[in-house]
Amino acid sequence: MKSNPCLPKRLRTVPVCVLLCVAATAPAAEIPALPALKPVAVEADITTLPASEQAALVPIIRAARQMDALYMRQVWPGTRALIRDRQAAQTSVAEAELAALNFFKGPWGPAGAAFIAGVPPEQPVGDYYPSGTTKHDIEAWLATLSEPDRKRALESFTVIEHGQNGQFEVVPYARHYKDGLTAAAAALGEAAALTHEPTLRNYLAMRARALLDDDFYASDVAFVGLKGPIDVVLGPYEVDDDAWFGVKTAYEASIAVVNKPATDRVSQIAARLQELEDHLPLSSELRGRKLAALSPIVILEVIYHGGLSGAGGAAAGYGLPNDLHVLDAVGARTGTYSNILKLRYDSIFRPLADAVLSEQDRSTLRFEDVRDAVVFVRMFDSLGPQLVTGTKQPITEALGENGSVATQIRSMLLSLWGHRYLIEHGYLDRREAASRYSGFLIEALARVHGIQGGSPAARGSTYVLNHLLESGAISVGADGRLKIDRAAADADVERAAMEFIPPMSKGDAAAVNTLLRHYVVVTPEIRAVLARRGPTPALQRPVYSTADRLSPPAP
């Protein structure tokens, strides 16, 4: 968790681009054309599931649709009224606008500009903070609070509202979003009664309770321990949309079935995470942390994405949960949506590789290389320093608005290093060495234009890409195509890790920001390479056919 231009995460990850609030509305004459969207069917084979599990999927998908509605409210409460207006209009224009609203989860397109008149011209900060306020207003109020009250105000599962007498008030998610959460919890309870798979039954029951009291620890632990053929991500996880303080979580849902053959192929890697942690290319004090028990890795075929997972496209994978207490206790669960990645590989990655890579590098590229690049970044989220050195403060909290992108950069650098380590030590086929940088490079180039919207994955990819270009590990040949020097790239990845991760581990926001300003830019060199691919393809608008057959959306 955030990929298309607006997303990371989730890659996971994959959230709508977030810009600062602008109070004025956009004049009709300045409204850009609707973004080009190409509907694509997303199918998953559920015929091999037992009848009990197929039945449980129906209420699970209903709960997931509630997460979608709640996320739209978090992005901007006015979106639901726009959707109702377009549903009632029943014209071709209204139909196109309705599709775009559901795709982006709000009336703002890939560059963050409104595509419908009468709304803020750029996307506001969202429902986490009171409308009509600024970040400065909230900071001034926070400065008046005691430390416990300030901590409460910046918790991940609270919103700040206008209270009585003009004062701000901290309200828990369970109260602020009560109606939608009550409906979702009831659906999960129904599903728990239908499934015969014990770990899924346990998780669904715990998650239903957690939605109503905002205590997610037990259900997060149960999520990591899921063993059956159905995978359920549901609730508030990622903080990428909070452009002010980087702490408020967004609702999302991803329902999928496990691709067992592909999962078996990558599960061997999980057994090596502690070995990788112990041998990270970092100084001794920044490596060797005792990891939790074996982290599950699953390759999935998605049935439905809702909320943040489906904002501006479809999430390609996740590494969850993010709660450090859960990570320390049981580790994380890493999921990759293979059917989503295959759609992107066929329509975006492969054509891009054919246009910009040297003959040698493009000839070795396979779909599995791109999938591995995604799997490794998600899986390696748990490696390296997680807390500011000598404290219990999460690094993401110390770095504020740059916390998410810093985590992405750390995971990307360590995943490139880790892939090499696994090959050199005989844990993976040595033939993978020929294409591992090609898989990263093509995905990075496909994301580059997302840095304008603040996508952490896009910014992280651009950082690593520019570092490799600056060192000469990746170069542009006389024919305008990119060439990869794998030995030089290996050396530069280690150099970049030692340059970036130490100040990150100290919570040195100024040093991290200096590095980001230098490397997170779309250089003329990158623009020239991307120009070879021709017109940008239309965004793929997923149509979740399997989910719609099982549990049709409400009219």
The helix content, as a percent range, equals 40-55%
Task: Tell me the strand order in the biggest sheet.
Answer: 4-5-6-8-7
Counting helices, strands and paired strands, the structural category is alpha+beta
Are there runs of 5+ residues with pLDDT below 50, and where? 1-29
Distance between the termini: 29 Å
Strand content: 5-15%
Write the layout of secondary structure elements.
Blueprint (H helix, E strand, L loop, with lengths): L36 E5 L9 H25 L3 H11 L2 H13 L30 H8 L4 H7 L4 E5 L5 E5 H4 L1 H17 L3 H16 L3 H8 L5 E7 L14 E8 L1 H11 L2 H6 L18 E11 L9 E4 L3 H7 L2 E5 H19 L2 H6 L2 H13 L15 H5 L3 H22 L11 H12 L8 H16 L2 E3 L5 E3 L1 H20 L3 H11 L4 H7 L8 E5 L1 H6 L5
Parallel strand pairs: 1-11, 6-8
Antiparallel strand pairs: 2-3, 4-5, 5-6, 7-8, 9-10
Helix pairs in contact: 1-7, 2-3, 7-8, 8-9, 9-12, 13-18, 15-17, 15-18, 17-19, 17-20, 18-19, 19-20
What does this structure look like?
The chain has 23 helices and 11 strands. The chain has helices at 51-75, 79-89, 92-104, 135-142, 147-153, 173-176, 178-194, 198-213, 217-224, 260-270, 273-278, 324-330, 338-356, 359-364, 367-379, 395-399, 403-424, 436-447, 456-471, 486-505, 509-519, 524-530, 545-550, and strands at residues 37-41, 158-162, 168-172, 230-236, 251-258, 297-307, 317-320, 333-337, 474-476, 482-484, 539-543. Helix 15 (367-379) packs across helix 17 (403-424) and helix 17 (403-424) packs across helix 20 (486-505). The strands form 4 sheets. It has a 5-stranded mixed β-sheet. The chain has a two-stranded parallel sheet with strand order 1-11. Strands 2-3 form a two-stranded antiparallel sheet. A hairpin with a 5-residue loop joins strand 9 and strand 10 (482-484). It is α+β, with helices and mostly antiparallel strands and 555 residues long. Helix content is 49%, strand content 11%.
